[in-house]
Design a protein that fits this description.
The structure is a single chain. The protein has four helices and two strands; from the N terminus they run H-H-H-E-E-H. The protein is mainly α. The protein folds into two domains: 9-53, no CATH class; 56-116, His-Me finger endonuclease fold, CATH 3.40.1800. A two-stranded antiparallel ribbon has the order 1-2. The longest helix has 22 residues, at 9-30. The relative contact order is 0.12.
């Protein structure tokens, strides 16, 4: 696993300024309509998440390909993967959800990895 790059203080300031600008633009576009503001905010959030993660259908297809490539077994413990509740795990976050940068894990192995990383 690679460590994700952290922003330096000056880079954090740039990110915060971008966020202030985007929020102000959403507010202006909504023109005081709270429902429109919510919908615009949600749309921008969703599209930015797709930039990083890809669209859900692409991840479903990728996961199915990886399960097949792994012979239906967990990439860590090699036990048969259950039909549901498996995890598409990225080897490198910046690499995205693409062939060669993901593996499919059973839930117990994923939980163990998340605990090792301090996320669970």
């Amino acid at each position: 696993m690679t460590t994700n790059r952290q922003l330096a203080d000056d880079e954090l300031a740039v990110a915060r300024a971008l966020l202030v600008d985007v929020r102000a633009r959403i507010d202006a576009a909504a023109g005081g309509d709270e429902q429109l503001r919510f919908a615009l905010n949600r749309k921008v959030y969703k599209e930015l998440s797709y930039d990083e993660r890809g669209k859900p259908n692409a991840r479903v297809s990728l996961k199915a390909r990886m399960v097949k490539a792994q012979g239906g077994k967990c990439a860590i413990c090699a036990k048969p993967l259950p039909a549901v509740d498996t995890v598409l795990d990225q080897l490198s976050a910046i690499g995205g959800y693409v062939d060669g940068n993901v593996r499919v894990l059973c839930r117990p192995c994923d939980l163990a990895i998340q605990r090792e990383r301090g996320f669970a």
